[in-house]
Amino acid sequence: MPALQLGELYTAPAPSLPTGGGLLPGGFGLDAPAGHATSPNGRAIRHLNGRQKATILVQLLLSEGNDLKLAKLPESMQNALSEEMCTMRLVDRDTLFAVVSEFVETLEQVGLSFSGGVGGALKALDGKLSPAAATRLRQMARARGVADPWERITSADSDTLVGLLEPESPEVAAVVLSKLSVKQAAELLGKMPGERARRVAYAVSQTEGITPRLVARIGNALATQLDDRPPAAFEAPPAKRVGAILTNTPTRVREDLLSGLDQEDAGFAEGVRKAIFTFANIHQRLNPRDIGKVLRDVAQADLITAFAYAALQPGSDEAKAVEFLLANMSQRMAGTLRDEVEIRGKVRAKDGEAAMSTVVASIRNLIDLGEIELRSDEEE
What we know:
By secondary structure, this protein is mainly alpha-helical. The protein contains 21 helices and 2 strands. It has a two-stranded antiparallel sheet with strand order 1-2.
């Protein structure tokens, strides 16, 4: 039974459907005042509100072994249902039958169901709104207590989190660290200065007694700061954008530009180098288990041309990339490619670089589709 449907029943106004007595002490017994409807067997029936009916359904489903996801309901609803269950006693069969019949009839008449509330709208519209509209909706959801601020924080990249936490105390940073995945937390610590990272890591040991309410307050404050930041004109950071451009430029042009960037801004140049992925980086960044996917995605003629061009540069990174690919494919296919490369002979630089770019483009495409993932610098 979906928790949302129970929640809708709970929030509904008291209906006109008559229900049975014997439900609550003081006014809900069988001695209903005259004028109320009666059941087929002549017993008096009184009205129930949405909370009472939802509680009956919850108890019925739990008693039959159903696993209800009540945690998805707002906390206020969870508390109200729990309190109502504490006050209820016996429910006669007429009451139970009336409540279940109404609920089934309501479900049968549903033609369209919305996710419900600001939180439901936020999930339904995720990725479909402009940044400004999405930010406003997130703020509304948090203000009403129906959105988890930590979803906003954990979805931010590590560079953003480092800047966000820079003015905060180590204790606040330790709370954020504890809410991140192990991989995210490790990456975040690695981007902090050594002394700061040590203080934050130690502060994690002081978070044992922190209350959920304080964690929620910290999350709301940090999420609000993230939302208050002006939207960026470009989604990718500058170094990544330049790296993507240089990935698709000829080797000579790329090396000249990188040399110039080294003189202008060595830190930025290093970031650009990390963002660049060329044929020469394959043996350093590509996982051996993903080579089969790459080979299926690249035409054999392009592979042969790229391999033949790399063979003209023995000892180069391009040649190492070819050996890496050949070593991690079937021996039969590797032997066929070696024979074809020997037959292909000398390749013009223009054709060779074009073939290498095709291989890299295929790898990039597989990355964008989420089918493969490059190794990080630390895994090389």
